[in-house]
Amino acid sequence: MSIDDATTVANDRLADREDMIVCVDVDKFYGDFQALKGVTATIKEGEVAVVCGPSGSGKSTWIRCINRLEIHQGGDIVVDGIELTNDLRNIEKIRSEVGMVFQQFNLFPHLTVLDNITLAPIWVRKKPRAEAEAMARSLLDRVGIPEQAEKFPGQLSGGQQQRVAIARSLAMEPRVMLFDEPTSALDPEMIKEVLDVMKELARSGITMMVVTHEMGFAREVADRIMFMEGGEIVEVGTPEHFFTNPTEDRTKLFLSQIL
Amino acid sequence: MQDADQISGDLEFQRRIGQQGSSPHEVPSLPVGQWLRKNLFSNWGNSILTLLGSFLALLALRGVLNFVFSENREWDAVRTNLRALMTLSYPESQYIRVWVSLGFVAGLAGLSAGLWANWGGVSVKRLSTWLMGSGGLLAVCVIVREPSVILGSDGKVVRTVDGSLQRESFLDAMVDRSTWWIAAAVLLAVGTLLWGRFTSPDRRGVEVSVTSVVFVSLGLAVLSLWVAPYGHYAFISETKSYVAESGRTVAFSTKLPWTVMLALLCGFFYLGRILRRSDYAGLIKGASNLLWLISPLTLFWVVLRDPALDYGHVMSTDLPMGLAFGFLGGAVLWSLTRPGVGEAGRLVATMLLVFAIFNWVAAFFGWYPMLQKARISFLLLAFAALLAPNFIGEIAKRRQLVLGWLGVTALVHYLATMINTPSTVELQSSEFLGGLGLTLFVALIVVLLSFPLGVLLALGRTSKFPIFRMLSTSYIEVIRGVPLISVLIFFSVMVPLFLPDGMELAELAAVLTGYTLFSAAYLAENVRGGLQSITKGQYEAADAIGLTAAQRTGFIVLPQALTVSIPQLVGQVISTFKETSLLAIIGLFDFLRVANSVIPAQSEFLGVKREGILLVAMIYFFFNFTISKYSQRLEQRVGLGER
User: Fold this and answer.
1) Which residues of B, range 524-563, sit inside 8 Å of A by Cβ?
2) Model's pTM, two decimal places?
3) Residue A180's pLDDT is what?
4) Mind giving me the DSSP string for B329-344?
5) Mean pLDDT throughout B81-87?
6) What is the mean pLDDT of residues B542-568?
7) What are the C-alpha distances in Å from B582 to residues B577, B587, B608?
């Protein structure tokens, strides 16, 4: 399936939107091992794209290339019209527009929840403290844990920590949110609380790129699902296409194992 | 693989949190008899070990007590020479300078404690056990010390026919020590009373704040100066005679200043407490930190030494030079922070650095004369220029750098001028301060200065720029491969040889530089251990929310790394403090040397060494034990509250 097809099967509501993330022929090597082999994809503004695939397929590597946590060696990545190069200013600009949520939450353990959230708005966006704190509290309200503001991350459950991490990313008012397996490190009963927050976020119209194994989530909110294997995008389609009528054998195999 | 590591690391972290978060399980305390049976006399073997251990402990205690209170001890030597032990030959007429410096430090310490400290409380129950314990120990001491020797009417010891000393009977000795018995009984009674009242389950949690315990103990100590008959002892240096008047309290010129010190400490503590809640708390905290950095040097070289400024030289050389560096350097930095300065900025900074380093090389070979101050200033300017790219942007940001530069230049030139001006204080030896004053000063200054340097070195060693990494690593390895003594000797003997004509760097300044550079290398390794404990995820999270590298280091990495390395850092502080005694080797009169060679050389106390050294050991132990205890509390608190 070619990339042109992938764009046409995207949801109609996105047809006339701007391109938010454009990847063309992205290559990434770890020594001799090629983790990404010419990944090409375009994600529109407001789109919710789910990336899935077996472990080691390069999906995390790809998403981490998009805000330069990993450096790609070949091809181009353009985020919101800014090309990712070695220029420090471009990287800083992109990072302040792209939020990222990690599998391991990566909250700052020595800061309270409130300080975790307000740190970047105060020091990167130069917001007054009072304003930043008011916004942090409204974000905590939005992710459903307004009462935890004064606690330290170590005093929260995994699900609560991940919701704080989402609030921390949202505090920078990003245009794009990247999720790198946000529920993989959580106990089953906590997965739902995080997914609920992500669903609410998806409906609010922010551009999202989600690496996940949660197929229920993908079916419910994704505009497109991308299936990766061996560092390549194997199949792209709407959830309907993907779950009912996959064309590639490898996709069928993956779905038969995971569903 | 890496993910797996990270997960296991995180799990470990979670587990620690779990342990720390839950309140410690309350063990109901056993009655004394049962506790003894359970812990010390549970079976025959344990009982024998317990008895044997106690016997050995009592034997050791008896030995120490007999040594300290033996009639052969000449404690007068220490009592008379207390001033020498504290400051050595600092002239008595100028003593007000010492008290002013000490008062400033006491006030600053009080202010900082008030601004920062959060020491919490200690339960009354625990206090009562301390009181009972010290009362019991005192009683044991009174019993085990052997009876005193009987003195005849001529004040000499009485000997029996076969020549052995005649001692009073055990009962007489106990009666003679009735004052001590009363003290022990009071401690035991107060302790037992408190214990009885505060062990019930609803009152065992009652706490008093650590601050009040500290202030009350200090208050009692100072009060005892006014009431207890410590005796008045002094060494009159003019007549080379000594005064010994037992049975009265210490001299007025001792007890009054100490009372003032305590008042300053308490007063500024409560001022700090009030300021902490004000809107300017952040500003005042910054100012107090800055004062800690500046004040030791200023107090030592300006207040204590009272330099005789040569105003002609100041006006013709020092001031114009300072102004030139300040404003021309400021102009350079201003232009280097212009938006769009680009690669040219880095080039200028690198050239400045090369020039600055070349100046030092030239000084080494004596190619051309240049004031040391100028060399230091060029080096600082080069570093500021290297920092400049971080300040490119709007006017406010650029102004920060230039103002910072002006402040640093003013400070460095002021101090350099002061250090190079001869003192007006009449000196009796080559260095004007010795004794505990010198020891504490050197320890304080080395710790204060080596801390920022050590952190920078650690960051350099873990930096991703190869040149920083290489420079820091080779610096650390070279210094760590060399004994402290050789560094001290190098700086005291060799460095003055390379100084240009007319440039006098006091011996002490040279040694301080050497010791600071030495200590920084060790500190850097301790901090590096902490830096390595920060997971990759923390760096990535900081990057992902858009922090710059400097912000990431300052807000995320360093606070966590320093917390982790508290135990090693405290160990470093303690060893720095103890190793100041090596200063004796290069000719300075530190605390230990005064006890070891100054007092035994006085004609009244010829060869009296043991008493002084015992006192010195006790004082070293007191300081280090306090530091160590404080760090334990700090670790506990940081671990509990902030994780």
Assistant:
1) 535, 537-538, 540-548, 551, 555-556, 559-560, 563
2) 0.80
3) 93
4) HHHHHHHHTSTT-THH
5) 86
6) 90
7) 10, 9, 22
Categorise residue A199: left if φ over 0, alpha if ψ from -120 to 50, beta otherwise.
Answer: alpha
Contact call for residues A235 and A246 (beta carbons, < 8 A): yes
Other Cβ atoms within 10 Å of B176 Cβ, number? 12
**DSSP secondary structure of A153-210:** GGGS-HHHHHHHHHHHHHTT--SEEEEESTTTTS-HHHHHHHHHHHHHHHHTT-EEEE
Kindly calculate the radius of gyration of chain A based on its CA atoms and give it in whole angstroms.
18
CB B306 within 8 Å of CB B94: yes
Rg of chain B taking only CA atoms, in angstroms: 30
Query: Scanning every residue of chain B, which has its alpha carbon at the shortest distance from the alpha carbon of A100?
Result: B544
Measure the CA–CA gap between A250 and A225, rounded to whole angstroms: 14
* Beta-strand pair A74-79/A19-30: antiparallel
By Cβ distance, the residue of B545, B555, B643 closest to A109 is B643
Instruction: Give the least confident one: A187-191, A195-199, A250-254, B508-512.
Output: B508-512
Q: Is B231 on the interface with A (CB under 8 A)?
A: no
CB contacts of A152 in chain B (<8 Å) are: 641-643
- Whole-angstrom CA distances from B300 to B81, B98, B262, B290, B422 are 22, 9, 21, 16, 13
Element (H, E) at A229: strand A224-229
- Report the candidate in B590, B619, B598, B585 with the shortest Cα–Cα distance to residue B439: B590
Give me the interface pTM, i.e. the ipTM. 0.92
Q: Give the rounded distance of the alpha carbon of B221 from its chain centre.
A: 21
Residues of B in contact with A103 (CB under 8 A): 3
CA distance B372 to B359: 10
What pLDDT sits at residue A103?
92
| Residue that the structure tokens 């050590």 belong to | B454
Top-ranked range on mean pLDDT: pick from B329-343, B389-403, B426-440, B540-554: B540-554
Instruction: Report helix, strand or coil for A18.
Output: coil
Tokens of B487: 């560094």
* Mean pLDDT of the B181-195 span: 93
Which single residue is written with the structure tokens 């170590």?
A154
Beta carbons of A45 and A222 less than 8 angstroms apart: no
How far is residue A223 from each of residues A7, B90, B593, measured CA to CA in Å? 11, 83, 81
Q: How far, in Å, CA of B74 to CA of A118, rounded?
A: 65
Residues A88/A259, Cβ–Cβ less than 8 Å: no
Residue B14 with chain A: CB contacts under 8 Å: 154
CA distance A246 to chain B (A): 31
Residue B17 has pLDDT above 70, yes or no: no
Helix, coil or strand: residue A20: strand
> What's the mean pLDDT when you consider all of chain B?
84
Residues of A with CB under 8 A from a CB of B: 67-69, 92, 95-96, 98-100, 102-104, 106-110, 119-120, 123-124, 152, 154-155, 165, 168-169, 172, 185
Chain B residues touching A172 at Cβ < 8 A: 545-546
Interchain CB distance below 8 Å, A119 and B545: yes
The string of pLDDT tens digits covering residues B305-329 is 888 888 888 888 888 999 999 999 9
Task: In whole angstroms, give the CA distance from residue B499 to residue B459.
Answer: 31
